[in-house]
Amino acid sequence: MRRQHLSHWGTFQVETANGDVARVHPYPLDPDPSPLLGNIPGSITHRSRVRGPAVRRGWLEHGPGPSDQRGADEFVRVTWAEATELLAAELRRVIDEHGNEAIYGGSYGWASAGRFHHAQSQVHRFLNCAGGYTASRNTYSTGAAEVVMPHVLGLDDEVYREATSWNVIAERTELLVAFGGVALKNSSVNPGGSSVHPARQSAQRLVDRGGRIVSVSPLRADLPDPRARWLSLVPGSDVAVMLALAHTLVEHELHDTAFLERYCVGWPQFERYLLGASDGLPKTARWAEPISGIPADEIVGLAKDMAAKRTLIAVSWSLQRTKHGEQAPWAGMVLAAMLGQVGLPGGGFVHGLGATNGVGIPKAPFAMPRFPQGRNPTRSFIPVAAVSELLLRPGETLDYNGERLLLPDIRLVWWAGGNPFHHQQNLPRLRRAFRRPDTVVVNDPYWTATAKHADIVLASTTSYERDDISGANNEPLLVAMQQAAEPFADARDDYQTFAELAGALGFREAFTEGRDARQWLVHMYETWRAERVRDTAGLRGLPDFEEFWARGHIELPLPEEQNFLSGFREDPESRPLSTPSGRIEIFSTTIDSFGYSDCAGHPAWYEPEEWLHGCRAEQFPLHLIANQPRTRLHSQLDHGATSQGSKVNGREPIRIHPADAAARGVATGDVVRVFNDRGSLLAGVVVDEGVRERVAQLSTGAWFDPADPADPDSMCGHGNPNVLTSDALSSSLAQGCTGQHVLVQIERFCGELPPIRAYDPPAFHTR
Ligand SMILES: Nc1nc2c(c(=O)[nH]1)N[C@H]1C(S)=C(S)[C@@H](COP(=O)(O)OP(=O)(O)OC[C@H]3O[C@@H](n4cnc5c(=O)[nH]c(N)nc54)[C@H](O)[C@@H]3O)O[C@H]1N2
Ligand SMILES: Nc1nc2c(c(=O)[nH]1)N[C@H]1C(S)=C(S)[C@@H](COP(=O)(O)OP(=O)(O)OC[C@H]3O[C@@H](n4cnc5c(=O)[nH]c(N)nc54)[C@H](O)[C@@H]3O)O[C@H]1N2
Ligand SMILES: [Mo]
Fold it and tell me: Which residues form the Molybdopterin dinucleotide-binding domain (predicted)?
């Protein structure tokens, strides 16, 4: 029998056999189903599953406390009753002795789709009922943009949710200049689920119509259509190119002064910087040529074209996942403002086009069903990528968006639905940070490196083992996610785990409100339906829960099309932006007032640290792009068929230019050691002319596999790039993740290849 289900990367039907997914059938109306669906079969009973609750032996025998055994110790299988009792007692101790602030419950991560069993919502609701926790703010995805764009546009995630839609771009855009390209691999996924994937066909349509796409990127693979133009540049140099384009527009009087006057503030300050009046350095195309490697006449030609055509400037999220990442989206927005096409159909600015499937699909004019997380009475928080700072520097401070945050002394760390040994930079440092707390708790279906570094591991079900309802921004289907298999071994839904714990701590009723999982689904759906019937005429025909469940999905009426900032353009007086000036802030008095040396009041060029023109490049001469994987979502289902199919000699593939391969005497299929002064890893070579010279590309997501689990500096034999990346943050403004770029050296690996142990469970001790 087929069950309806959904993941972040698609809607599909599931066929099961022997307690596992045997086959998935993509949603028939999806023109471009994701290859990531191939990772699902076999995932329920894979050997890397956590079979039941487990406790680290040292923690069980000696009690809570800092430990250098995390990641190296054996585990002991316990019953759910024991796990609940031990953890309830430890939570009570930490809260009584150190306060709720001492719990780090930021728990960043994508988990699985599904509004009710969403692991972060579950852990946050639970910890809120327990009196709160130190939280995390912003994301790894857009950590820099989320802080700077509210100052510039007064918008937060509306920048993506209200992005110009693909159907408008396909029909109206004449020139799409995409900094960071439009990598179709990324449009597979959407947080919370996806059904139809329009990016590929839309890019095709644009080119069929005679429109042009210029993909500015160090990788050819970022072209959304083979007919698009690849403009290769030195990684990290985009802001210099944007400034040079802006300078060219001014030089040729091609900028729209009327638009800048009416819709923006701060043009004069920026213009002084651009022309060199404030620092003696005009940001000309000649200036940008040696920085970016793009010939000056190319830049001048492109600027003239941009002014002559209906032009959309796309800035990918990757550009802000770097040192000074605040600058690229801000400079891109300013460039679009100079062209004066902001708010016109198919013109203007878009941030993250194709980064997820949802960017480019109009947003629903209403909220999705939700599982309330409650209120966190504890005020302490960190910008999310500062987790190593938090754990290693208690009592010290961190600048953030005009505030000075005090880093609390964390005693208990709780992760549910995220994998910091996937997402955090500088894993050798994270491993040291994970030694400090008294207790680390992880809920996960799999023995990820994070679970192996925990003290208490709570075995979770996967979404296929439970019923749920989807619900995602910018997604036209609401899907009944129907349980396809029985829970594996002794795994439990996170909801049940937290409900039992809440019981042991005396707040079960507050956590569950007396509902079981099924009753929550009905409650969430029916509350949502009642709100929709009240506020949206088009949704009056919504079926009740039973009918929705039987149908498997319902279609949501999304707007036909969407044009970013069109309302503001039509009437800036009655529909101002929610910036202090009500207009686009080319110069932000607020940011300027913070007085940060690494983020001024207007977008500017700052030299990054990890790049080819810096002094580190003498030692580590290749620029590694650690981007999102084509074959999986982050670290999820790395053992699945699609992901495994891409491995080279069992290692994650690293792509390098033929000249760089020849210089090192390596060829496709060889295993290389990739290293810098932070760490080293093994990866499998793919020689690729579509990679710029002196650039290498190694995706995130290979499960961390230290050769010696007791040594924090141990080589990763599998190819997780975060062994090498720097955990320096974007700037004092946003303190965002900078993991996209890192300098490395590569050499042929001559030793004996270590076996891949990443998917093996840890050793167990039997009592
Ligand atoms: N170097 C570098 N690093 C990066 C990036 C980069 O560009 N370069 N990108 C960053 C970005 S943008 C992101 S978003 C992060 C992603 O980082 P994460 O979101 O942390 O990565 P995932 O692999 O999606 O981790 C999700 C975890 O949730 C678990 N899980 C799934 N379903 C459930 C469930 O129902 N219950 C529980 N308890 N657990 C569940 C999965 O098994 C998995 O371990 O990585 C960041 N890291
Ligand atoms: N298949 C798949 N899709 C995903 C994800 C996944 O894990 N797998 N993760 C999702 C998530 S959480 C997020 S946040 C988004 C992220 O979306 P993005 O941040 O856009 O994704 P990346 O793949 O990291 O980067 C996109 C491209 O930017 C280019 N690039 C890197 N550095 C530079 C530079 O300095 N200059 C220029 N011009 N280009 C550069 C790289 O060639 C890279 O392929 O992707 C989402 N989509
Ligand atoms: Mo992300």
Answer: 622-731
Residue ranges per structural domain of the chain: 2-133+376-514, 144-362, 615-748
User: Rounded distance, CA 485 to CA 15, Å?
Assistant: 10
Would the pTM count as exceeding 0.90? yes
What are the residue ranges of helices labelled H in 282-350? 285-292, 296-308, 327-339
CA 192 to chain centre: 13
Q: What is the CATH number that goes with domain 2-133+376-514?
A: 3.40.50.740
Kindly report which listed range (42-51, 193-202, 530-539) carries the lowest average pLDDT score. Answer: 530-539
What would the pLDDT profile of 336-393 be if each residue is shown by its tens digit?
A: 999 999 999 999 999 999 999 999 999 998 999 999 999 999 999 999 999 999 999 9
Å from CA of 385 to ligand 1 middle: 13
- Determine the atom of ligand 2 nearest the C-alpha atom of 179: 38
User: Ligand 1 in contact with 639 (CB < 6 A)?
Assistant: no
Residue 659 reports pLDDT greater than 70: yes
* Inter-residue contact 207 to 175 (CB < 8 Å): no
Residue 215 pairs in a beta bridge with 178, 230
pLDDT in tens, 209-260: 999 999 999 999 999 999 999 999 999 999 999 999 999 999 999 999 999 9
The residues whose Cβ lies within 5 A of ligand 3, an ion, are 141
Residue 539 has pLDDT above 80, yes or no: no
738 lines ligand 2 (CB under 6 A): no
CA of 442, closest atom in ligand 1:
38
Atom of ligand 2 lying closest to residue 630 CA: 1
**Closest Cα to atom 42 of ligand 2:** 219
Specify the pLDDT at position 469: 98
Q: How confident is the model at residue 633 (pLDDT cuts 50, 70, 90)?
A: very high
Which one is catalytic: 9, 27, 104, 108? 108
pLDDT at 227: 98
Ligand index nearest the alpha carbon of residue 355: 2
d(CA 215, ligand 2 centre) in Å? 13
Residues of the chain by 3-state class (helix, strand, coil), percent to 5: 35, 20, 50
Q: In the predicted model, what is the mean pLDDT of residues 140-166? A: 97
**What is the distance in A from the centroid of ligand 1 to the CA of 422?**
6
Q: How far is the CA of 100 from the centre of ligand 1 (A)?
A: 25
Which residue in this structure is represented by tokens 């019981």? 503
Determine the average pLDDT of the residues in 612-622.
97
**Does 141 sit in the ligand 2 pocket, CB within 6 Å?**
yes
Backbone angles phi, psi at 669, to 5 degrees: 100, -20
Q: Per-residue pLDDT tens for 65-113? A: 999 999 999 999 999 999 999 999 999 999 999 999 999 999 999 999 9
- The pLDDT score that the predictor gives to residue 538 is 66
With a 6 A CB cut-off, is 214 part of the ligand 2 pocket?
no
Give 615-748's CATH code, choosing from 2.40.40.20, 3.40.50.300, 3.30.830.10, 1.10.150.130. 2.40.40.20
Say if ligand 1 is within 6 A of residue 633 CB: yes
The DSSP secondary structure of 373-422, one letter per residue, reads --------EEEGGGHHHHHH-TT-EEEETTEEEE-----EEEEES--HHH
Output the CA 472–ligand 3 centroid distance in Å.
15
Task: Tell me, using a 6 A CB cutoff, whether residue 35 lines ligand 2.
Answer: no
Spatial CB neighbours of 430, under 8 Å, sequence gap ≥ 6: 387, 388, 420, 421, 424, 727
Can 144-362 and 615-748 be said to share one CATH topology? no
Among the listed residues 110, 140, 446, 464, the single catalytic one is: 110
Do residues 363 and 473 touch, judged by C-beta distance below 8 A?
Answer: yes
What homologous superfamily is domain 144-362 in, according to CATH?
Answer: Dimethylsulfoxide Reductase, domain 2 (3.40.228.10)
- Candidates 43, 49, 110, 222: which one to mutate for ligand 1, based on the most atoms within 8 Å of Cβ? 110
Task: Tell me, yes or no, if 446 is annotated catalytic.
Answer: no
- Cβ neighbours for 336, distance < 8 A, ≥ 6 positions apart: 311, 313, 342, 347, 348, 349
Give yes or no for residue 688 CB within 6 A of ligand 2. no
